[in-house]
Write a structure and sequence with these properties.
The protein is mainly α. It is elongated. It is about 80% helix and about 5% strand. Helix 4 packs antiparallel against helix 5 (about 80-130) and helix 5 crosses helix 6 (about 150-165).
Length: about 160
């Protein structure tokens, strides 16, 4: 029994051996925003949705100008005309909201698909840097990170190198 207690005390006295010796941290958001691969993915996504976004913005601007025109001229208009224009504006607003909701859903779906592929590329680069530099543990989220263990810049360099190949 004393032998087991001695082994347990010995293990507790050497916690550094049980823990990872070399820890690193990567800021994935920065890698997505600054890596050549991330920049390309964001550009493709923006290009794919640019026309539809402009069209929606134009319709919102048209709605706003008509709404302001109604507010300005309502006192000069007949009651029936004010009611008719108000109904048109409500219908226009309902359609715009529906179209914006559809746009946002499609944009987010496309963005998530793009980010999933990009996450794989980033993970591969992180693993490469971790193995190359003999890290025991790499974390992506933390409450506090010392600059000493932040390897985001190294992973970014690896992503740039891979993009140039």
């Amino acid at each position: 029994m004393m032998r087991y207690l001695y082994v347990i005390l010995l293990l507790l006295a050497m916690p550094g051996y049980a823990l990872a010796e070399k820890i690193g941290y990567v800021e994935v958001r920065r890698l997505i925003d600054e890596s050549p691969q991330g920049i390309v993915e964001v550009k493709k996504l923006e290009d794919a949705f640019a026309e539809r976004n402009r069209e929606l913005k134009g319709r919102v601007d048209l709605f706003e100008s008509r709404r302001q025109e109604l507010e300005k001229n309502a006192v000069l208009m007949a009651e029936e005309e004010v009611a008719r224009v108000s109904e048109e504006l409500q219908e226009m607003q309902r359609i715009i909201r529906r179209d914006q909701r559809d746009y946002n859903e499609e944009y987010n779906d496309s963005r998530n698909r793009s980010l999933a592929g990009l996450q794989k590329i980033i993970s591969d680069a992180v693993i490469h840097v971790a193995r190359r530099d003999d890290f025991d543990l790499i974390v992506q989220q933390a409450v506090f990170v010392s600059n000493r263990i932040d390897i985001t810049e190294e992973v970014l360099k690896e992503l740039v190198r891979r993009a140039e190949q």
